[in-house]
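look at this one:
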Amino acid sequence: MSDPIDVRERLALCDLLLELGPDAPTLCEGWTTTDLAAHLVLREHFRRWSDAQRDAEKAKGLPALVARLRAGAPLIPWRLPRIRDVFNGLEYFIHHEDVRRANGREPRAPIADLEALAWRMTGFSARRLARRTRPYGVELVRPDGERRRYGSGDMATLSGPATELILYLGGRRATARVTLGGAADAVAAVRGTTMTL
C-alpha cells in the first residue's frame, strides 16, 4: 500500500526545498522557500502567528524547518483517517507545485488518488467562483469528459485534469494547465475574479 497523499507530497516538497535552497522563489507572492516552510510549520502546530513569529521560525534556517516538516504533522487533526488528505493532502500538493512551477518544473504525470481527491474538492472552490460571477455559472470538465456545473445562466467552462483545476481555482491561474472557454461574458467574469484557497 502506498503512502497517503499528504505524506508523499510532504516528503517530495521537503526534498525539493533542500535541493533548491533557502532563497528560491515560490508562486506565493513575496515568499521564498524558507517563508513557505515556516508557514507550513506554523500552520501545523495551531499557532496564530504574526510576521515576527514567522521571522523567528525563518531564523532557524531551512534545514531545521524541513527537518520539522519531515518529522510529520501532529496526530490531531492532521493524521486522522479520512480527513488527513482533505486537511493536508491538497495543502501540500498545492505548495509543492508552488515551489516546482516557480522554479521551471513541468506538471507531473497524473496520480490517480491525487486526481480523485482534487476532483472531490473542486466543488467548494467552484461554488465560490460561481457565486462571485453571478449571473453566470461555472462548468468544470475533466479530460475523461466528466462534468460538474455550478450556478446557472451562461457558463464559463474550465477544462483540465482535476489537479490543474484545483490550482486554477486556488489562484495559480498563470501556471495551471487549464483551458477557459464558454460564453464570452461568463469567461470575462471569471477572468475578473480573484480566488485563493
